[in-house]
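[09:14] KT: can someone run the structure on this one? pasting the chain below
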Amino acid sequence: MAHPRQSALEDFRWHPRPVDDAINGVRIPDFLGLELVQLCVIAGIRRNAGFGHELRGLTPRFTRALNAQAIMYSRDIPDMHDPEDFPYCIWYPSVPDRDTCRKLVTRYPRMKYQVGRVCAVANYEDLYKELDILPEVGIAEEARENGSEAIYSAIVKQPVKYAVFNDYSNSLVVENPPISPMNGDTCVTALLEMKQSFERPRPKEQYAPKAHRNGFESRMFDLCEDMSVDFKESERRSIDQSVVLPLLYSPLPADLPTVDKDMLILSAAYHGDIDRYVRLRRPKKIQGELACLIRGIYHDPLFAKFWSLQPLAEFWSSQSSTRSDDWRIRRAINARFIMSNDLSRIAPTTSVSELPYCIWFPQPAYWTVYEHLARLRPDMKLQAARACIVADYQRSFEIIDPPHDSALVKEAQVSLNPFYLKYLQAKEVQGDTTRKDYDVEWWKYYTTKHALMPSPSSVYGKLNASSIGTTQTWIYDGVEADMSDVEVQICTPEEVKQSGIREVSDRYPSIE
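[09:31] RB: done, structure tokens below
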């Protein structure tokens, strides 16, 4: 039976006041059909003792929020029978007192690791010793972040540590937890303080981002099940460059320091570093990761081989979209294999979406590969012919015999061999032309000459994950990641940075 406060989405009329009241713990809105409204109610329950009791039993997450509220504000220990009743986070935005923690562990032994994390946040050293739990990496990272030195030292001095907490899925592995170093996978309390402001939800539109449709942005971590929604956006957490930069060019320590590891993930993907990437990556892709992965696959055959063996569906879920990017990864793998003189992944039945265009940069294949490819897949004749122009395989180009094509002409115009441009111009006169105007795939007009030109960079400005991003969306089948800002900051001596000498770089030239 539907709750009387729930109404159909089509009857919803947006007004911010009831939602503000929910966060402040003043009253529950008359409408609970929207995801954003439910998140604001959960935020209000967690932040305001005694708020929202009439919602118990309506949904599991409302019940979990109310149980967390009772525990955190040291009221009566709630009755929890169903596994879905147990809250994951009981240490934010408040921590329960010691007596409540002891009562909780006595009644629900399964929650002793959550109590251990409370100890790390609140520095309950004596209570932590009473728990007699395994040295857990999430508790260690939380203790380090919150200055609970004794608890932190007690864990890190152990020869083996375990990952009981999984902050990505809000789950615990109490029985036979995996051995793990401190790997930066803990959503410490400082991250929970990073709030996001909400906005009016919008109807579903074809090109509207999901965040605009829902009124909030889905986040990697959601320990409190409220997506950290608030009235005002928090300032982005600054990254200590003195900690991050050395980790980019040094072996990773056994235990990562407190650091936003997104830059490390992107750099590992960008360079095709299998060991670092496998250790650092998150269960869901982060912003810029796709571009960096494609760049790494294009440049490293071993990284391409690694990805060719992965069940992509398990590794490539997205928190912001249901659209799969598997085809982009497979297309990059196919391109790298072709450039490594292997056509085993290309067959007459290979999906067109997985056939790459750029199959000559950063390394052309042997000339016979392109001839065979054009015979095997006639719909790749243009790609094979363009690769022959880049590598100056004149005889193979003639065998492939491509039609006049505007993108091929662009490449022929920068070739040192005038044969290709004359050949294509003759084709145009004969009427043998594709007549393609690459309005959508405009990046095909950029040539290998452009790909070899340096990127603009600066030794100034703060670095963050967005410093490793897409600047030229054209080299690798319409995708390219750039690390020039990071590289120049790493390579430039500190005295030069402080001297005020600025490096000037021209922008990329026009394609005209």
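[09:33] KT: thanks! The two ends are 65 Å apart (CA to CA).
[09:34] RB: yep, looked fine to me
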